[in-house]
Amino acid sequence: MISEFQDLSDKIDRLAQLTQSLRAENYLLRQANSLLSAENIAFKERLNEAQRRVEALLEQFPAPEAPASEDGDGGETNEATQ
Predict the structure, then answer these.
(1) What predicted TM-score, i.e. pTM, was given to this entire model?
(2) CA atoms lying within 13 Å on the CB side of residue 46
(3) Is the pLDDT of residue 72 over 80?
């Protein structure tokens, strides 16, 4: 009977140690998650800024010219010449 209580006590001790270990790991994971979230926000801000700068550069280029038609009549073919 005492042996059973000792086994139960040992299991409770291991459970308590495991609980403490998991709490410590959870704390570290929360800290890492917080740091990564902040880093992710900073990267998104950098990406948005780069996108704004690229768009500003693209606006400085002249608009592309429409291609001129070769026969000069808007692309319609002349039936008399066919």
Answers:
(1) 0.58
(2) 6
(3) no
